[in-house]
Amino acid sequence: MSDDQARTGPITQTRRTLLAGAGAVGAAVVLAGCGDDDATPGQAPTSGGPPGATATGDAGGGDRDSSAPLARTSDIPVGGGTIYASKGVVITQPEAGQFKAFDPICTHQGCPVSNVDGGTINCTCHNSRFSISDGSVKLGPATKPLAAKEIKVEGDQITLA
Question: What are the angstrom distances between the C-alpha of 39 and each of 13, 19, 43, 44, 79?
Answer without folding.
Answer: 42, 34, 7, 7, 21
